[in-house]
């Protein structure tokens, strides 16, 4: 395998050995991200709003932002017995830890019937399995540092058929980096058999860089290497284009005012009925979005910084600016 994209990705993989080359390409490294952007633009007292998924959920619901419905919360072990009542009559749902990371501890049930609860991989679970999973969440099995946690039960996202073939046993999500309210870079994360149906790039999901202008695919990578076809379905990843793109960017950009964070990652999904929905916020978004796009973040971040604060823009104006100035197809 050869070519400019492969060479660029090789440099990303060797970033600690060749910092000068990466700087010239505008690649944002971890230290610079932490010092120049996260520490500078994200007040520490606001971190709990995004580090705790329950607080995030409550903030989102209060702001009237479209998001999966909250079915219930289990905080203590003695409440585990109430799980059956919470999910009674619910067709599909998701159980996840409030302080989990990297998709750990997320259990998705697509439907339930007389046979039991159906997972995304086709396996069956019974009520006892679900209760044990909730108990493991409460015990901190999936939380950072193993601290006691809280279990959140949310309604299931109705997977939009437009992404059929682009993902494997999982709902794809769109990550948008938002800086000072401007959507500056985006990618879609597509689950694979390697990632066990989860949209986690480190576990083997496919990352597809998206053009900010229209939401169409720019590049696709798996395990930091370029791919053309989805490894499980064989679908051409370069034909991907996210519908409702402007609405999705508007939702993403509005999270700046809602959260107060100047540098954040917004994770969105596309629901068949409700359209773009906010799934999660991240105050320390990863850097692999640059690999998926084949381009560094620094030039775009600098361009936004150069605007200063003289002219306050609305959400719509910020989205329009980003689509005009950061599109690769203009």
Topology:
Elements lengths: L3 H10 L5 H6 L5 H12 L5 H5 L1 H10 L7 E5 L8 H5 L5 E5 L9 E7 L2 E4 L4 E2 L1 H12 L12 E5 L17 E7 L2 E9 L15 E5 L6 E6 L2 E2 L18 H15 L3 E9 L3 E8 L6 H5 L4 H10 L7 H11 L5
Antiparallel strand pairs: 1-6, 2-3, 2-6, 3-4, 4-5, 7-8, 7-12, 8-9, 9-10, 10-11, 12-13
Helix pairs in contact: 8-11
List keywords for this structure.
single chain; 330 residues; globular; six-stranded antiparallel β-sheet; 11 helices; seven-stranded antiparallel β-sheet; disordered N terminus; D-amino Acid Aminotransferase, Chain A, domain 1; Dna Ligase, domain 1; alpha+beta
What can you tell me about this protein's structure?
This protein is 31% helix and 22% strand. With 330 residues, the chain is α+β, with helices and mostly antiparallel strands. It has two domains: 211 residues, ATP-grasp fold, B domain (D-amino Acid Aminotransferase, Chain A, domain 1, 2-Layer Sandwich); 87 residues, 2-Layer Sandwich (Dna Ligase, domain 1), CATH 3.30.1490. The strands form two sheets. It has a seven-stranded antiparallel beta sheet with strand order 11-10-9-8-7-12-13, with helices on both faces. A six-stranded antiparallel beta sheet has the order 1-6-2-3-4-5, sandwiched between helices. β9 and β10 form a beta hairpin. α8 packs across α11. The longest helix has 15 residues. The protein starts with a helix and ends in a 5-residue tail after the last helix. The N terminus is likely disordered.
């Amino acid at each position: 395998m050869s070519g400019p994209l492969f060479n660029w990705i090789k440099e990303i993989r060797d970033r600690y050995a060749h910092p000068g080359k990466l700087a010239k390409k505008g690649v944002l490294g971890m230290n610079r991200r932490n010092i120049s952007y996260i520490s500078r633009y994200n007040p520490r007292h606001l971190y709990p709003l995004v580090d705790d998924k329950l607080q995030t959920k409550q903030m989102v619901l209060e702001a009237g932002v479209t998001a999966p419905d909250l079915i219930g919360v289990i905080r203590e072990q003695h409440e585990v017995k109430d799980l059956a009542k919470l999910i009674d009559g619910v067709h599909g749902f998701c159980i996840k830890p409030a302080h989990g990371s990297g998709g750990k501890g997320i259990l998705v049930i697509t439907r339930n019937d007389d046979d039991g609860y159906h997972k995304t991989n086709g396996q069956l679970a019974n009520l006892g399995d679900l209760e044990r999973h909730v108990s493991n969440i409460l015990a901190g099995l999936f939380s950072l540092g193993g601290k006691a946690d809280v279990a959140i039960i949310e309604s299931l996202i109705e997977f939009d058929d437009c992404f059929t073939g682009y993902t494997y046993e999982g709902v794809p999500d769109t990550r948008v980096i938002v800086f000072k309210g401007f959507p500056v870079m985006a990618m879609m994360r597509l689950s694979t058999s390697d990632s066990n149906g989860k949209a986690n790039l480190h576990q083997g999901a496919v990352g597809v860089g998206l053009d900010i202008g229209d939401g169409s695919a720019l590049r696709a990578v798996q395990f930091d290497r370029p791919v053309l076809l989805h490894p499980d379905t064989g679908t051409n990843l370069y034909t991907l284009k996210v519908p409702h793109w402007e609405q999705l960017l508007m939702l993403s950009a509005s999270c700046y005012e809602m959260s107060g964070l100047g540098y954040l990652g917004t994770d969105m999904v596309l629901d068949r009925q409700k359209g773009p929905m906010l799934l999660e916020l991240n105050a320390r978004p990863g850097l692999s979005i640059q690999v998926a796009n084949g381009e560094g973040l620094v030039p775009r971040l600098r361009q936004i910084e150069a605007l200063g604060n003289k002219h306050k823009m609305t959400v719509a104006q910020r989205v329009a600016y980003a689509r005009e100035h950061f599109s690769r197809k203009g």
